[in-house]
Amino acid sequence: MFEEARKLLETTIPTSVGKPFLANPAAKEFEFNKENFSPINTEASFSVAGVDSGSVTVFSAPGVSVGFVRTFYNVFKNLQRLRQEKKDFLVVTKLVPKGGEAFLESVVLPFQESELPLKEHLVLNASDSSLVLKGFRAMPSAMTPVVRKYLEWIACKQASKHADLVVKDGSLATSATNESFYAKQFFEADCKKSALSKTCSLVTDTGLSLTSAVNKLSPKGKWVYSRVYENQKEDFDFFVVKLHDNARHCFRFEYLKNQDCLNNSLSNLAQYSRDSGFLGYPYVLVDADNNGRVSRKEADVINSLLQSSLLSDELLSLNAHDELDLV
User: Fold this and answer.
1) Are 101 and 125 in contact (CB under 8 A)?
2) What is the H or E stretch that residue 297 is in?
3) Residue 142 gets which letter from DSSP?
4) Angle CA(177)–CA(182)–CA(183) in degrees, nearest 5?
5) Distance CA 276, CA 281 (A)
6) Cβ contacts of residue 130 below 8 Å, gap of 6+?
7) Residue predicted with more confidence, 90 or 308
8) pLDDT confidence band for 45 (50 / 70 / 90)
9) Mean of the pLDDT values across residues 140-156?
10) How far is C-alpha 185 from the chain's CA centre?
11) Exposure of 317 by Cβ count < 10 A (0-12 exposed, 13-18 middle, 19+ buried)?
């Protein structure tokens, strides 16, 4: 069976580069061109912040859930840590019937003094397209990842007060209802705004990963590849970057439109991309990932504290599936 699967993979994994294929009517793809590679070779020394977050469902029932969210940012300059800030939150969500429809209402409880999302943004229709597929109704636990997105943008805004360049893990794109409100607050900050992603779902018309295709065409050394596609509806420009001469991987990089100093920003990130543990990936994001992550053990501790204080047998029984998982 495994040998058959291996043979199928060998015959289906594409090898030819092709051209970018986004399947998005708003995007105009450009043919690959080696002239679109530029070396990253400037000297830059300004402060850079890495931002990441994590979340987990602590308690889930059909009518109520409790989620745990953590946000983290760091600030480095000349390879020295200047600042870091970690914030933890509980997200309590309940399902509320109104006028024949179901709504999810969340309350965000911070562990530390923190800026919170607007209350009106914490109430969404349970059929909201950013929560669930059309025709289905979301469980209360679906609100936790949405609130996490709001809080991560708030963390980006806070980081921008202390850094010249902020690099967010993932993307500058928004997908959840009300998310753009918080993204725009960050976009207006007085710093360079960017995002770098470890993964890229975009492909070429041969089915090859877009970043793999660019890597196949690339020169030696550190570089940035521009003009992959153009989309007037997006707030950012899209690039593929390689941040260390000997790195095996290149990454998707987004830079807010109408910003200068792209090469300086990438040179700055390249200074933090020399760790042999993940060569070519900025340490500011490695550190943000490690500190923004939420462990299952932490969630279990919070779950135990909640369970010990719950008086409702009904709520306890609805969460019995979690206990079964431990058997």
Assistant:
1) yes
2) helix 296-309
3) G
4) 95
5) 9
6) 124, 146, 175, 176, 177, 179
7) 90
8) confident
9) 98
10) 17
11) exposed
Tokens matching residue 208: 């090859």
Would the pLDDT of 321 be above 90?
no
Domain regions of the chain by residue span? 38-325
For the chain, what's the residue count?
327
Asked if pLDDT for residue 327 goes beyond 50, the answer is: no
Provide the pLDDT for residue 4: 77
Question: Token pair for residue 320?
Answer: 């019995």
CATH of 38-325, one of 3.30.457, 3.80.10, 3.30.2170, 3.40.50: 3.30.2170
Average pLDDT over residues 149-168: 99
Residue with structure tokens 């793999």? Answer: 212
pTM for the full model? 0.91
Judged on CB neighbours under 10 Å (0-12, 13-18, 19+), 274 is middle
Those residues with Cβ within 8 angstroms of residue 317's Cβ, 6 or more apart along the chain or in another chain: none
Q: Return the pLDDT at 326.
A: 44
Q: Give the whole-angstrom CA distance, residue 115 versus residue 186.
A: 13
| Rounded CA separation 251/200 (Å) | 8
Tokens of 102: 């179901």
Burial class (CB in 10 A: 0-12, 13-18, 19+), 213: buried
Question: What single-letter amino acid sits at 301?
Answer: V
- Give the span between the Cα atoms of 83 and 240, in whole angstroms: 29
Burial of 303 (0-12, 13-18, 19+ CB in 10 A): buried
CB 38 within 8 A of CB 224: yes
**Encoded tokens for 132:** 């669930």
Q: Is the pLDDT of residue 53 over 60?
A: yes
What ranges in 68-205 are assigned the alpha helix state H? 143-160, 179-187
What residues contact residue 188 under an 8 Å CB cut-off, 6+ apart? none
Residue type, 282: P
